[in-house]
Design a protein that fits this description.
Helix content: 25-40%
Strand order of the largest sheet: 1-7-6-4-5
Oligomer: single chain
Order of helices and strands: EEHHEHEHEHEHEEEHEHEHHHEE
CATH class of the largest domain: Alpha Beta
Radius of gyration: 19 Å
CATH topology of the largest domain: Peroxisomal Thiolase, Chain A, domain 1
Shape: globular
Length: 323
């Protein structure tokens, strides 16, 4: 990896603030999720704006110019609009050349997906520097009357510059991604697509907001994240105890605690920022990774494990030997 960066909107919405608009409380939210506040973008700040700011930070860290980027992939489930892709919008905002730009929709596992796609495209030899961005404006699809979902999510973005690694055994060692579409019904947004185009009825029925069956998602998430993590480690002959840092999708502290227990790893190997950002979906992994790196929790030679799950249901893990 050549550079990393992230961005979160400055507006902070606390649990106490949410308690004024829905039937909830700081105690209720913290006990069930570990979240105490989240960042919410302004009305004039789009998903592409968040992504572009994270990208600029990553490019500055990599000391790379816009003309050197020859591939742009964005993971998001809250695009500026159905089309064109948010990647194409960000391309314009960054002043990039006429390079391939596209989005991938894998929800909260989206960043793991685009890391793998970006790596495979670099291996083709046709690209030198890939910019991969996870960005979300989840506040735009929240039902602010539903206390079971609106308290969970926030807005943000994270980005990485991928460059071809010439040193064997360093960088991204491998990725394991998968999906089970049969479970799609437990986390989705039913309205707005060709299945349920926008009508007066779909709007009144609040079909254009995120819907989630929390207990079912929780059970699947713990199982598939553990399985995926162990699979990618086994593939590269790395034992769980050899992992120095685990960047888990930041959805619920209880999920992370269970994975920590099942893998036999102490919680101090799991950087946590969901208390301050909530679940930022595809931005969750790069936001947490950027913070952990800048706090000195990731050093050269460390094994870093990324794990995530999301709507689809999708999930994945990536093993990195940091350099």
């Amino acid at each position: 990896m050549g550079g990393i960066g992230s961005y979160a909107p400055p507006q902070i919405v606390s649990n106490q603030a949410l308690a004024k608009i829905v039937d909830t409380s700081d105690e209720w939210i913290r006990a069930r999720t570990g979240i105490r506040e989240r960042r919410i973008a302004n009305n004039g700040e789009n998903c592409s704006d968040l992504g572009a700011k994270a990208a600029r930070a990553a490019m500055a860290h990599a000391k790379i110019d816009p003309e050197d980027i020859d591939l742009l992939i964005v993971a998001t489930m809250t695009p500026d609009m159905p089309f064109p892709s948010t990647a194409c919008i960000i391309q314009t905002k960054l002043g990039l050349r006429n390079i391939p730009c596209f989005d991938i929709v894998a929800a909260c596992a989206g960043f793991i997906y685009i890391l793998d796609v970006g790596c495979q495209m670099l291996k083709s030899g046709n690209y030198r520097n890939a910019l991969v961005i996870g960005c979300e404006k989840l506040s735009s699809i929240m039902d602010w009357q539903d206390r079971t979902t609106c308290v969970l999510f926030g807005d943000g973005a994270g980005a990485i510059i991928l460059t071809k690694n010439e040193t064997a055994g360093l960088g991204i060692l491998g990725t394991c991604i998968a999906a089970n579409g049969a479970d799609g019904k437990i986390l989705n947004m039913p309205g707005g697509g060709s299945n349920e185009p926008a009508t007066t009825e779909t709007v009144l029925d609040r079909r254009h907001y995120l819907k989630m069956m929390g207990k079912e998602v929780f059970k699947v998430a713990v199982r598939v994240m553990e399985q995926s993590a162990l699979e990618v480690l086994a593939t590269h002959n790395v034992k769980p105890e050899d992992v120095d840092c685990v960047i888990s999708h930041q959805a619920n502290i209880r999920i992370i605690e269970l994975i920590s227990t099942r893998m036999g790893l102490p919680m101090d190997k799991f950087p946590i920022n969901l208390d301050r950002y909530g679940n930022t979906s595809a931005a969750s992994i790069p936001l947490a990774l950027d913070e952990a790196y800048r706090e000195g929790r990731i050093k050269s030679g460390n094994y870093v494990l990324l794990i995530a799950f999301g709507a689809g249901l999708t999930w994945g893990s990536t093993l990195i030997k940091w350099h």
